[in-house]
Amino acid sequence: MDPVRNPFAPGAGQRPPELAGRDREVDAFEIVLERVARGRPERSLVLTGLRGVGKTVLLGELRSMAMHAGWGAGKIEARPEADLRRPLSAALHRAIRDLAVRHRAPERIDEVLGVLKAFALRSSPEGTKLRDRWQPGIDVPVRNGRADSGDIEIDLVELFTEVAELAQDVGSGIALLIDEMQDLRAEDVSALCAACHELSQSRVPLVVVGAGLPHLPAVLSASKSYSERLFKYSRIDRLDRADADFALLAPAEREDAMFDGEALDDLYRRSGGYPYFVQAYGKAAWDAAPTSPIGVRDVEMAAPEAEAELAVGFFGSRFERATPAEREYLRAMAELTDGEDLPVETAGVAKHLERRASSLSPARDSLMKKGLVYSAQRGQIAFTVPHFGRYLLANT
């Protein structure tokens, strides 16, 4: 098989050649765009799931849909303990520029950009000298008095209102997409919920689409009790057998190649239907096969290469971030589940390690902050990375 024509593309946030199994989410967002365009009330969206299920890819697809509909769209990736103002300002600046290209309203756009600039400049701490302040790159005069109080909740409500009203004035909309949403600071989560609540009542055309790990709904609910009704939640899971097969067969057929039935059986068993793994094993199997159709022997030959790549780029990079105490905790979780993707009792981890539960709390909390585990429900913990337990048992 010609490696140059290999269609499979394992990569962080990289769109696969076939976006299989996500029709429900794509269709739902299409309805959101149409309803908002008609002035109908609609909730913002939150996508949740484990790592490797394609949340970032799906965010990119939804952003493309918004832009195709003539909306302005900006995307950010939240980072732990990082200030929201700077990335949010850059994302909304991009979205407003999208509107400026498609809709002629220069004076109105400059007014809103002036408010955005005032919001962005508040990211510099009080007392920072003018020459040392971060400059957002917005080439219009600052418009003081809106979204610049220094209180992120007040400012975000006012900023979203200004931006949404601009979109309404030019007959369009704004989509703000936030990846790794669970990593927002508590005060920023609260501000975001308050701003979305305000928008939902005024029916203006601004939609927030967040994506994050499975415990993101709990993060939002802890911030604002009404968040359960504020967002439309969608759990992004692994692909079922039919969609996993389609993700392999459709790109291969476009390159005049095929997988036989036994190869597809083995690929699904190894990948578990997780989109990132489907791409990794599919790419390795293509490169290993001498001719089409790709058979089970080719998959068996390719599996060690795919697993070695996953061990370094997907599992190993995350494991390296853990301290010795955290690695001990992770290993105990893997042993208790026999490498399966299942939650475990925190009390069970303590018993397994013959330690007091309180002594393990720092390691557990640190692992949660690093995004390696999440609280499946009270008293339980689970890996955020599929097949991580299997990797730990084989490599640690």
Question: Which terms would index this structure?
Answer:
five-stranded parallel beta sheet, Cytochrome c domain-containing protein, Arc Repressor Mutant, subunit A, alpha/beta, 55% helix, metal ion binding, Rossmann fold, electron transfer activity, Helicase, Ruva Protein, domain 3, three-stranded antiparallel beta sheet, 396 residues
- The rounded distance between the terminal residues' Cα atoms is 35 Å
Taken as a percent bin, the fraction of beta residues is 5-15%
Summarize the biggest pleated sheet.
Answer: 5 strands, parallel
CATH top level class name of the largest domain: Alpha Beta
Supply Rg: 23 Å
Uncertain segments are: none
Based on CA inertia axes, which overall geometry fits? Answer: globular
Spatial arrangement of strands, main beta sheet:
2-3-4-1-5
Instruction: Provide the residue-averaged pLDDT.
Output: 92
CATH topology of the largest domain: Rossmann fold
**Domain module tally:** 3
Give the helix/strand class: alpha/beta
- Got a strand count? 8
> Strand-and-helix sequence, N→C?
HEHEHHHEHEHHEHHHHHEHHEEH
CATH architecture of the largest domain: 3-Layer(aba) Sandwich
- Helix content estimate: 40-55%
Number of helices: 16
Region (Disordered): 1-21
GO molecular function, one term: electron transfer activity
Keywords: Heme, Iron, Metal-binding
Pfam family, one: AAA_16
